[in-house]
Amino acid sequence: MNFQLPKAVIAGAFSAVMAVSPAASETWRMALDVGLESPEGRGIQRFVELVDDYSDGDLTIKLFPYEQLGSSDAVGEQLAAGLIQMQSAGLVRLAKWVPEVEYINAPYLFEDREHWVRFMHSDLVGEWFQRVEDQAGISVLGDPTTFLRGPYRVIVSSKPVESFEDLQGLRLRMHSDDLAVAAWTALGADVRVMPWSDVYQGLQRSTVDAVNSPIALVESTRFQEVAPHVTEQDEYWQSVGFMVNTRVLEGLSPETRDALERAYADAAAYGTEQVEAAAAESVERMKAEGVNFYDMDLTPFVETMATFYDAHSGDLPDGFFAAVDATRTAQ
After folding, report:
1. CATH code for position 42
2. Which UniProt keywords apply (predicted)?
3. What confidence tier does 97 reach under pLDDT thresholds 50, 70, 90?
4. Could you say which DSSP state residue 317 is in?
């Protein structure tokens, strides 16, 4: 004999189960342009751990390091399309949708890191990021200045670069960024655009002579093996940007979103500590291996870029110089 429960009983039982069952957990895919063994990578791994902890397992993140899912530009397209949920990279990648964003990395313009941080917190930069969100559906997570990348920038080269003159004609790898390409061309380099993951081979095969890099990433990429000369150049300050697909971010519960943002803040502090501590240790190890380190007079770089900005003043974003000037001192 077939026995069937009344539909009302089934519906009531299903509702009761759903009321006490926890919400299904989510798994996000996150692409990054560095290796997990780098100081920056360790900070990102801490972020993943904290997200799982703070969300009580409701949100987990799977990492795809060192451009496994494609170049940073290709990954940005995947992020906008929702094929992945997060990307960690320099925020200048967002210039693909709002070209003005590339000016957050304007070379030889900001007086110090504090000046740059104040500029990043300006209404102008906030407007640029809002336009990215509106046009591409990509949001910037948290305070974009807190996860330090660097902590300073260097030229890693196959031959010594000890002066402005040594830069002239140097085949310099550059990321795909119109401002960076134009600026370093004006400074005298022979700029070659190349994906980050191809740089080691490019240096090894002499396709390029040099690459600009945060000092903390040099050893983990092993660039010094094929380019044993490192020169501090301090072109700009930068941070590790955490970019999130806006739709999936807004789809989180308030509790999970809070967990995500707290995890970012705590991991950014940890990552910055890792980068700062590791940089000094890395320099000492590389010196012991015979890598040569140089300082150089940056005055010609600053003077050349001042002329560059003056000559291109009509092409600069509206309000850019006003925002730079307004943020020179703390209010």
Report:
1. 3.40.190.170
2. Periplasm, Signal, Transport
3. very high
4. P
Going by C-beta distance under 8 Å and a sequence separation of 6 or more, which residues neighbour residue 307? none
Q: Give the predicted TM-score (pTM) of the model.
A: 0.86
Q: Residue 145's CB: how many other CB atoms inside 10 A? A: 21
Give, as one character, the DSSP assignment of residue 207: S
- From first CA to last CA, the distance across the chain in angstroms is 82
- 139 — pLDDT class (breaks 50, 70, 90): very high
Q: Kind and range of the H or E element at 264?
A: helix 254-288
Enclosing H/E stretch for 292: strand 292-294
Which domain covers residue 75, as residue numbers? 23-148+239-285
As a whole number of angstroms, the distance between CA 52 and CA 43 comes to: 15
Instruction: Check if the beta carbon of residue 26 is closer than 8 Å to that of residue 59.
Output: yes
Q: Are 270 and 311 members of one domain?
A: no
Angle, helices 39-54/254-288, rounded to nearest 10 degrees: 160
Q: Which amino acid is at 154?
A: V
Residue 8 lies inside a defined structural domain of this protein: no
pLDDT tens per residue, range 249-267: 999 999 999 999 999 999 9
Q: Is residue 208 part of a domain?
A: yes
The alpha carbon of residue 276 and the mean position of all alpha carbons in its chain are separated, in whole angstroms, by 16
Residues near 281 by Cβ (< 8 Å), separated by ≥ 6? Answer: none
